[in-house]
Amino acid sequence: MARRARYGRRKTNRNYWWILAVFFVGVAAWLLLSIIQGKNPIELFQSETQVESSEIPYDSLQSLLEIEKQNTIKLESELTLFKSNAQAKLVEIDNGTLNLRSKPNTTASIIDDIPSGKQINVYYCLPDSFNIAGNRGTWCKVRHNSVEGWVWSSYIKK
Q: In this structure, are residues 30 and 41 in contact, taking their beta carbons and an 8 Å threshold?
C-alpha cells in the first residue's frame, strides 16, 4: 500500500514528470535529426572544422604542393613587378651619411650607410607620420647597392 501524504492524498512531483517529458522529447528530436541528416547521432555535436585523424592521400598532397608552387610563382612575379615600379630618389643630408636600417625603427641594426647625393630606389613609405629628432616624416622601404632596408623619409629628396 502506498504511503499517503500527511494531510490526505498522495502527492506527486509534477516538476519531475515535466523534466522527464522534456528530456525524452529532446532525445527523440536528436535521433530524428540524425536520421534526416544521415549521420551518426554523436557526429551532430562534433565541429565540422575538425580534421580527421586519417592520413591524407598522396594525390591530394601532390595537388596541394602544385597549388603552393603556383602561388609562389605568382607572388614572385608580383614582387618583381612591384620592385620594378620603384621610384629613384636622391638622399639629401647635411653632414655624414643616412643609416639604412633592417627594420623601420631607430633601434634596428644599421645595415648600410648612404652618402648624401646618392640615388636610392624607394619601394613604398609607411602611412604613419611622426617626428624623429625634430624631423617630420615616415619610414620608407628602399634599395641601395642591392641592399634593401628602411630610411627616414625627411632625408629623401623628391
A: yes
Q: How many residues does the chain have?
A: 158
Distance CA 144, CA 96 (A): 16
**Best CA proximity match to 39, nearest among 51, 50, 48:** 48
State in Å, rounded, how far the first CA of the chain is from the last one: 104
CATH of 87-157, one of 3.30.1390.20, 3.30.930.10, 2.30.30.40, 3.30.70.2190: 2.30.30.40
Instruction: Output the nine-digit C-alpha cell for 39.
Output: 549521420
What predicted TM-score, i.e. pTM, was given to this entire model? 0.49
pLDDT in tens, 84-132: 677 777 777 777 888 899 998 889 999 999 888 888 888 888 888 888 8
Residue 68 has phi, psi (to 5 degrees) of -65, -40
Residue in 153, 44, 150, 25 with CA at minimum distance from that of residue 89: 153
Q: Which three cell numbers stand for residue 83?
A: 620592385
Backbone angles phi, psi at 46, to 5 degrees: -85, 145
The span from the CA of 131 to the CA of 102, in Å, is: 20
